[in-house]
Each structure stands twice: as C-alpha cells, then as structure tokens.
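Hi everyone, sorry if this is the wrong subforum. Our group has a chain we'd like a structural model of before ordering constructs, and none of us has done structure prediction before. Sequence below.
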Amino acid sequence: MLEKRGLSRAILDVKLVIVQGNAKDQEAVKKVLVDENGQIVDQIVFGVGGVPKFTPNPLRPTLDDPHVCQDSISSIISALQSVASPNQANRMPLVTALSTTGIGEGRDIPLAMIPLYHWMLAVPHADKKALEEHIIEAKQQMLIRDFVIVRPSLLVDGQTHGKKEVRVGWEGKAPGQLGNGAAVGYTISREDVGFFVFDSVVAKDGGELAGKKVSVTY
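Answer:
Right subforum, don't worry. Here is the predicted structure as tokens:
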C-alpha cells in the first residue's frame, strides 16, 4: 500500500518500524515510544478505534470494546511516564488524535445528522469524549508537549477530493473559546483526513493548530 504512494522499499526498510502488540500493552507501547538512541519520539499520531457491534436495540449499537480509545490513550500516557527521564521533560511528544465531530461545545454537524450522532453513535462518541479529556489532562500535567485533536465528519471510503475541498474549523485552547468556529459538513474521506493530518499537523509539528480541537469536512 505504501509503495503505491511512491515510497520505495529502501525508504520503508530504513524508516518504517512495526512493533507487534496491543495499544493496551504497555511493554509493546514503550518500544514504540523510544527510538534506538533511547530518546522519546517527537510525535504520536493516535488513530485507534473499535468494531461496531449491534445490540437488540437497533438504535443503540455499541463497539466490540466500548472503551478502546480511552483505555488505549491511558496506556500510552502511562507508558510515557515510565520511559521519561528528568532530563527529557522538555522533549515530551506532540499528540495528534483522531476523534469525531458531534462532541464539541458548539454544533459541528448538520441538523439532519443529529439523530445518527446522538443516538446510534452514543457509545463510540462517549469513548471519543473521554479520549479528548485524557489528552487535555495530560497536557495540563505536562506529560505531553501539546496536542492536536482532529475531529473529522463522518468518514467514508473513496477517492480524495483534494486539499482545496477540505474545510477546517477549530475550538480554541481555552474552554469555551470557539476559535474560528467549527466546519460543519456531512462527510470526508479517510484519504483526505490522512493527508490533512500529515500536511497540516505532522509536517508542521502542530503549527498553529497546536492545542486546538480541529474539525475537518467537505
């Protein structure tokens, strides 16, 4: 898949390291957080999610693991505390986490999608909300350098629309600060979310989006 995107096998052999394990397994997580020189990584991109699981109530589906996001980010933060040494306090990583629209302080979804988001997606959204709270708390406790919470609208497969078609809004760093307002829309492709995360966040080490909850949509 990566070779199809123009990355040669030589680059992948040098730059890509795959650690087998589970995000809740702190020993496996520690191997990802520290490089071959014993230094903590500069950035963490968090994109953990669960598999939908239907219940007798068709309006209240759940996940195979209803707390997968909050438990996984807690594991990562705990692992960070374990591997950090006093002289690395100023080298803690930036955390970029994929969350969701529909859980912010202001409305960031179309009115027509409110039933879907607030009823059918209540369980995964509660998990995403807890994920965000854990990350913000970690920043307040100086366990991470900063964060960017990315809230895409409903994710779909398919071709990218391109950077010019992606609209961006954000909530500010302080509670209740709505920034430039949320970008309200129906869907966005996984391809375009991935490109946004790399181009606008990872490549810029957070840049002007650091400390913000960013909505992205078409």
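For your construct planning: The longest helix spans residues 122-140. The chain has a mean pLDDT of 89.
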